[in-house]
Design goal:
By secondary structure, this protein is an all-alpha fold. The chain has helices spanning 2-7, 9-25, 27-31, 43-67, 71-101, 111-114, 116-134, 139-151, 154-166, 176-196, 201-220, 226-234.
Length: 235
């Protein structure tokens, strides 16, 4: 029993680390907002924070259930978890488009150009979640794709860290998210190599796609192809 629990330690530790990073990134604007005297959040923003927090809590719970061999309960709770993930993607789409339509974007960024970043995040999360659900009967694929789906959500929190760390130092933005994502993927690869002496294809293909998508999301916003799409979405 103890050996099996140790073998499942990485999924639990990884989601705890992701949750901690999310709390730190959004501490000023959401979790500890009452300490900073910032303007009130909209109902949509509150709801988005609640759904995203629920997703992380469910992911942790699901990882613990598997670690303690409570597979039947994991499967039953999985239906609700999948529904929360779908709602999260839909609501994140609404929040992103509404925010850009209202002119919200990081300093110095054109809102329509910036929209490609949250849209890319939502797309990666949705694709990874859909793949994980489609392969739910193939445990080794399913658990890795679910982790990558949660990892894809780290970029918004990392963007807040960019504002707190990179900008005051006069360093380039959009750097922390890439390297944090890379670090988590490398951690997952190292864990697989340590346990299996190989890296599972879900981590190879999914991890590479996730990392490669991060600069691609930003670059897409500066193309002539993207702007008509962004204009159509915000209308």
């Amino acid at each position: 029993m103890n050996t099996s629990i140790a073998r499942n330690r990485f999924p639990t530790l990884a989601i705890v680390a992701l949750a901690a990073l999310t709390v730190v990134g959004f501490a000023r604007t959401y979790y500890l907002k009452f300490l900073f005297g910032l303007p009130p959040l909209t109902l949509a923003a509150h709801l988005h924070g609640l759904i995203a927090t629920t997703w992380l809590a469910l992911h942790y719970t699901q990882a613990r259930l598997i670690a303690t061999h409570r597979v039947a309960l994991h499967k039953r709770l999985g239906i609700f978890t999948a529904c929360v993930g779908i709602v999260l993607a839909i609501h994140a789409f609404h929040v992103a488009v509404a925010g850009v339509a209202a002119g919200h974007a990081p300093p110095g960024r054109n809102p329509l150009q910036f929209l490609s970043v949250p849209m890319g995040t939502i797309t990666m999360f949705s694709l990874l979640l859909a793949s994980a659900l489609a392969l739910r009967k193939r445990r080794e694929w399913h658990k890795r794709l679910m982790f990558l789906a949660s990892l894809s959500l780290v970029l918004p929190a990392a963007g807040r860290l960019d504002s707190l760390i990179m900008v005051p130092l006069g360093l380039p933005r959009a750097v922390i998210g890439f390297w944090l994502s890379f670090a988590f993927v490398a951690w997952a690869w190292a864990n697989d190599w340590h346990k299996l002496r190989r890296i599972h294809p879900a981590y190879v293909y999914g991890g590479i796609a996730l990392i490669a998508s991060i600069p691609a999301r930003r670059a897409l916003g500066f193309t002539d192809f993207w702007l008509p799409i962004a204009q159509w979405l915000t209308r």
